[in-house]
Amino acid sequence: MYIRQSTEDKDISPSAYLAPGEAWMIIAVTGTPGVGKTTVSKLLSEKLGYEYVSVKDFAFERGIGEMVGEELEIDVDELAEAMSREFHGRDVVIDGHLSHFVPADVVIVLRANPKLVVGRLMERGYSREKLAENVEAELVDVILVEALEENENVLEIDTTGKTPGEVVEEISELLERGIKRRFGIVDWSGVYDEVLPYLRLGSGRM
Ligand SMILES: Nc1ncnc2c1ncn2[C@@H]1O[C@H](COP(=O)(O)OP(=O)(O)O)[C@@H](O)[C@H]1O
């Protein structure tokens, strides 16, 4: 199991997100599929008056990546380059589980109890394998760890038991307070047994 680092909660002024002279802000919203990225990103962009951009649509429209079966496999370097170029000088909320690979002023990592992720992905008709892959990823903090490797400014938000509006309020408040880095706020080890039947090791295929 992933060994959690201690929570950091640093108070820094809001302007610390932006380099001197920059008046725009790029916010990346990432997380495991099903945690609520699209719902929260759209609401957040409305509240802030920012543009909303979906990584998937952006990549598809510009021919970044290639179709593998029914899925678009996105080249993250190409994505990061194209987004940096296009979003220079614009206020944007980027929605997608690859958004943390794009240069952003802050990365919001949404988290949700893996039990919720199971329910939402089953509803979407995910295959057993894709379901397992994603529930495991949420359980052991895969996206959070990647985001921390990619960006200094990472805010982890637990959406469990909250409405999308409450999540957006929490994000706005952290941004207003100028909090640049906060993580280590969830621990899913307690629900491991309950989601075990949905994991790859639970199906004897490890
Ligand atoms: N606090 C919350 N934040 C975001 N989504 C939530 C929340 N509570 C329930 N939901 C629901 O969870 C689902 C998340 O779907 P979606 O936003 O498409 O996730 P993702 O983009 O991460 O795959 C939606 O049906 C949404 O209404």
UniProtKB/TrEMBL annotation:
Single Gene Ontology BP annotation: rRNA processing
InterPro entries cross-referenced by the UniProt entry: Adenyl_kinase_AK6, P-loop_NTPase
Q: What's its catalytic activity?
A: ATP + H2O = ADP + phosphate + H(+); AMP + ATP = 2 ADP
- Which residues are noted in the entry as ATP-binding? G34, G36, K37, T38, T39, R124, K162
According to its UniProt record, the EC number is 2.7.4.3
Q: Where is this region: LID?
A: 123-133
Q: Which key words are in the record? A: ATP-binding, Kinase, Nucleotide-binding, Ribosome biogenesis, rRNA processing, Transferase
- Positions of the UniProt region annotated as NMP: 54-74
One of the record's GO molecular function terms: ATP hydrolysis activity
Q: Which family does it belong to?
A: Belongs to the adenylate kinase family. AK6 subfamily.
Q: Function, please?
A: Broad-specificity nucleoside monophosphate (NMP) kinase that catalyzes the reversible transfer of the terminal phosphate group between nucleoside triphosphates and monophosphates. Has also ATPase activity. Involved in the late maturation steps of the 30S ribosomal particles, specifically 16S rRNA maturation. While NMP activity is not required for ribosome maturation, ATPase activity is. Associates transiently with small ribosomal subunit protein uS11. ATP hydrolysis breaks the interaction with uS11.
Record's subunit section? Interacts with uS11. Not a structural component of 40S pre-ribosomes, but transiently interacts with them by binding to uS11.
The protein's name: Putative adenylate kinase
Which species is the source of this protein? Thermococcus camini
